[in-house]
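hey
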């Protein structure tokens, strides 16, 4: 069979891992493909910086056009990152009839509909296994392995930086600032960690997973996003006392009419499988109507795990090329996805359990005033902790509620914060606890 030739644009950390696999595992990959898989050219603006792998000078270039304009290159791998330039490169590759592999979740979340529509028109493919959860094959699972299922719900720990910080805060009782500094020193967090700690990176990934789960267009703007930068270690301590862990979760759930789309810190029972995902690891917990609950767990970032996912996409596309097959499985699982949408449930309509922490003056009757406002707004209390521990002159009152509507919870918080015995703002987190739901029933 004719060799399949690959061009790589972006020779950074992940790019170096891809080069390593394509060169060091060339014999194994060719054996699995049934023909040669050749890395013909690598482009990067800076070819002088140290890298863990080396290539012959004739295979290196500073010009992306040397790859895009090469008629012998079948597959273009985009690992340059960013949005605008990466979008132009991917569109150029598609317009020239080349298949594309990318690990760029932000690019897909913002411009995926445009790129996938262009690929559909040109009859080429865009593969993106590495865009979500690094080496965990969640894209493959949703596109093919779970194709017989309606995905009922999906919870994801999709950002290793945030999970590392929360693990440090929980296990060592450190502040957010201290945990972030440790994450940066360990290489888990960027100098500017905003995308990670404010939930934006997680939202990019959730947009992709929702599109695959529901066979619909990518819709980043519909996702409600909250980060972890304002977390207080006190709340992680109280969460433990109630039997919960706190995680930054991506959550989507299909009620048959509308779907939830949200990213925020969430309390989950400590016996939940996701509660034991610590450090910089990633995990996706999902439920299909036929298969039931499934957990996929592993390294969500790093040179070799992400490179492994990139090369799996290259190999999959190369198999199709070798067999003369195009678009055997559409990028979003079905061709109709780009013309389909799902109705998103507004966050105010969400019904779930809540954790509230109030800072109250140590006076008689405070608890009854607070519970009265909650009751007036249709919110019943499942558990309470009230201690004499001083927190800036106020006593913390912590409550777990039965299921309530988000709009009612927010209205109750506004009214409680107006009480002269309460020092605002009230702290609240959402809870995902099936045991609590069952107890209420």
């Amino acid at each position: 069979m004719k060799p399949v030739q690959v061009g790589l644009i972006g020779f950074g950390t992940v790019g170096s891992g891809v080069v390593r696999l394509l060169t060091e595992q060339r014999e194994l990959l060719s054996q699995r493909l049934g023909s040669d898989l050749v890395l013909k050219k690598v482009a990067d603006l800076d070819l002088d910086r140290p890298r863990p792998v080396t290539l012959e000078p004739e295979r290196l270039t500073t010009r992306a056009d040397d790859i895009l304009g090469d008629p012998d290159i079948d597959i273009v791998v985009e690992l340059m990152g960013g949005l605008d330039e990466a979008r132009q490169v991917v569109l150029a590759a598609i317009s020239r009839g080349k298949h594309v592999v990318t690990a760029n979740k932000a690019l897909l979340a913002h411009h995926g509909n445009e790129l996938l529509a262009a690929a559909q028109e040109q009859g080429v493919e865009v593969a993106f296994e590495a865009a979500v959860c690094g080496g965990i094959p969640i894209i493959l699972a949703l596109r093919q392995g779970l194709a017989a299922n309606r995905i009922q719900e999906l919870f994801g720990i999709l950002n290793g930086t945030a999970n590392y910080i929360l693990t440090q805060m929980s296990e060592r009782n450190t502040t957010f600032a201290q945990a972030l500094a440790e994450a940066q020193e360990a290489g888990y967090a960027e100098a500017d960690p905003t995308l990670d700690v404010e939930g934006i990176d997680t939202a990019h990934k959730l947009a992709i997973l929702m599109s695959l789960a529901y066979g619909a267009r990518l819709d980043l703007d519909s996702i409600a996003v909250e980060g972890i930068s304002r977390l207080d270690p006190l709340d992680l301590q109280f969460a433990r006392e109630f039997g919960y862990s706190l995680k930054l979760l991506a959550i989507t759930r299909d009620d048959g009419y509308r779907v939830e789309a949200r990213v925020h810190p969430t309390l989950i029972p400590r016996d939940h499988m996701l509660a034991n995902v610590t450090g910089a690891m990633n995990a996706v917990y999902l439920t299909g109507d036929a298969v039931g609950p499934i957990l996929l767990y592993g390294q969500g970032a790093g040179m070799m795990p992400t490179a492994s996912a990139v090369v799996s996409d290259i190999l999959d596309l190369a198999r199709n090329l070798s067999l003369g097959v195009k678009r055997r499985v559409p990028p979003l699982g079905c061709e109709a996805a780009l013309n389909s949408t799902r109705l998103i449930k507004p966050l105010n309509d969400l019904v779930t359990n809540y954790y509230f922490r109030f800072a109250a003056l140590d006076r008689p009757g405070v608890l009854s005033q607070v519970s009265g406002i909650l009751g007036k707004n249709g919110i019943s209390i499942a558990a309470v902790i009230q201690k004499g521990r001083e927190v800036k002159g106020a006593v913390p009152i912590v409550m777990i509620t039965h299921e309530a509507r988000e709009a009612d919870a927010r209205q109750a918080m506004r009214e409680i914060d107006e009480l002269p015995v309460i020092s605002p703002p009230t702290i609240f987190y959402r809870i995902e606890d099936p045991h609590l739901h069952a107890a209420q029933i």
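The chain has three domains: 4-135+303-334, 143-299, 348-440. The chain has 15 helices and 17 strands.
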